């Protein structure tokens, strides 16, 4: 690892042209910390993936929009809100490369989108129909599927995600098998749900390729759940080619929760456009976010590139210290990466994983999700650490602009301490 990074210079490349301000502000390391000074001090916050973050300038704009509504709600609803929403939508339209404004709407989150899509197709589902998805799909999405698909008597095929994963080809091969299962006995696949970046374990999916395979195999409709995409990977909905695509703005795009952009290739189901009385202010912050990211070298793309490079660097640093492995090659992650935990911790269940997570929070001030990976039947996928123990636990580390190298050192040292003290998860 680059020595300079250890010397606390880890933020120097956020400056515009090495510290020379161009036509806009440059962000020094301390300015970045000021943007997020409301974060509790002394906590290694390496879990941006769960709840995102929101800088002061965007919070202030959020408050201002909310007050404008409260001052005179009728006028706000009729004269201000329609244009303000339109402005956010048109900025997002170009960010995700949609053709038309009517394809782009703002909703609460990816789970809402799943419910809309499932309700949309459930009216015409019959016994011989199937819905195909990865087994690691988000829990709330799985619940929607049970609600809409199972009640219609249609069936669900869950495709196991290979993990740890070594290449995109492994995912493609599993996906093709899953589609064959979905088409068995003359069944029709009415919907495929594909994650752009899975949440847990976190892996970047070759989504464009999987959508193309769906088209070849005659899948009716494809819904891409890209909860983590905007702000971590370039999003081009035309190139991806799905019927529906949703991505949150409160995870990696600096909005407060909760807001997501929902793209539909054809006319959107009408229920997405108007919900009635609610706080729309988080949907109106896209211009403020664009302003915030423009203060970074390279704008949003620069942020994504650096977050990816950093999270890979930090992952490498951790596995070198612990003698473990990464859960995917670097090119199969965006701003989150899975890091194998030492086998000595004895992570042998979901319960162990959540105990370790709470223990790290309570005793070490480290916020990081822990994933238990049940061993697959296939011995070829077994992964061992340098003590020749089976790796069955992984941490999902995130990197966002406010993170510093100390956050990851704190995590590294906490795990080393637990191993040294002979602590196993059952005891925590």
Automatic annotation (TrEMBL):
Residue span, Aminotransferase class V domain: 86-268
* Chain segments carrying region Disordered: 1-34
Q: Does the keyword Nucleotide-binding apply?
A: no
Q: Do you know which Gene3D superfamilies this protein is assigned to?
A: Type I PLP-dependent aspartate aminotransferase-like (Major domain)
Per the UniProt entry, what is one GO biological process?
A: L-cysteine catabolic process to pyruvate
A molecular function (GO) term = L-cysteine desulfhydrase activity
Q: Which UniProt keywords apply?
A: Pyridoxal phosphate
Q: Where does the source fall among the domains of life?
A: Eukaryota
InterPro entries recorded: Aminotrans_V_dom, PyrdxlP-dep_Trfase, PyrdxlP-dep_Trfase_major
Pfam families attached here?
Answer: Aminotran_5
Name of the protein: Aminotransferase class V domain-containing protein
């Amino acid at each position: 690892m680059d020595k300079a990074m250890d010397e606390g210079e880890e933020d120097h490349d956020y400056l515009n042209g090495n510290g020379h301000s161009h036509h806009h502000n440059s962000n020094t390391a301390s300015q970045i910390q000021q943007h997020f000074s409301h974060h509790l001090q002394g906590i290694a916050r390496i879990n941006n993936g769960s709840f995102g973050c929101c800088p002061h300038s965007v919070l202030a704009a959020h408050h201002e929009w909310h007050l404008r509504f409260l001052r005179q709600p009728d006028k706000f609803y009729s004269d201000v809100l329609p244009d303000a929403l339109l402005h956010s939508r048109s900025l997002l339209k170009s960010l995700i490369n949609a053709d038309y404004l009517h394809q782009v709407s703002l909703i609460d989150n990816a789970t809402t989108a799943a419910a809309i899509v499932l309700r949309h197709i459930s009216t015409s589902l019959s016994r011989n129909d199937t819905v195909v998805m990865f087994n690691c799909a988000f829990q709330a999405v799985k619940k929607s599927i049970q609600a809409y698909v199972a009640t219609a008597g249609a069936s669900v095929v869950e495709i196991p995600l290979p993990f740890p994963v070594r290449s995109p080809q492994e995912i493609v091969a599993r996906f093709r098998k899953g589609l064959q299962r979905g088409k068995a006995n003359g069944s029709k696949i009415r919907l495929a749900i594909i994650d752009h970046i899975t949440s847990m374990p976190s892996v970047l999916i070759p989504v464009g390729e999987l959508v193309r395979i769906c088209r070849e195999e005659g899948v009716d409709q494809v819904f891409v759940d890209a909860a983590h995409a905007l702000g971590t990977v370039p999003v081009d909905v035309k190139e991806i080619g799905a019927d529906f695509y949703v991505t949150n703005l409160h995870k990696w795009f600096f909005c407060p929760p909760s807001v997501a952009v929902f793209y539909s290739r054809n006319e959107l189901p009408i229920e997405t456009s108007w919900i009635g009385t609610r706080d729309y202010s988080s949907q109106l912050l896209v211009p403020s976010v664009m302003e915030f990211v423009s203060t970074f070298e390279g704008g949003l793309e620069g942020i994504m590139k650096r977050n990816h490079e950093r999270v890979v660097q930090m992952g490498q640093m951790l596995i070198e210290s612990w003698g473990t492995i990464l859960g995917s090659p670097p090119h199969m992650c965006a701003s989150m990466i899975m890091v194998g935990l030492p086998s000595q911790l004895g992570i042998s269940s979901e319960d162990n994983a959540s105990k370790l997570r709470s223990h790290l929070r309570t005793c070490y001030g480290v916020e990081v999700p822990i994933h238990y990976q049940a061993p697959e039947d296939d011995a070829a996928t077994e992964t061992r650490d340098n003590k020749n123990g089976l790796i069955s636990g992984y941490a999902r580390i995130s990197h966002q602009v406010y993170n510093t190298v100390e956050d990851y050192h704190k995590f590294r040292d906490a795990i080393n301490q637990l191993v040294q003290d002979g602590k196993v998860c059952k005891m925590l």
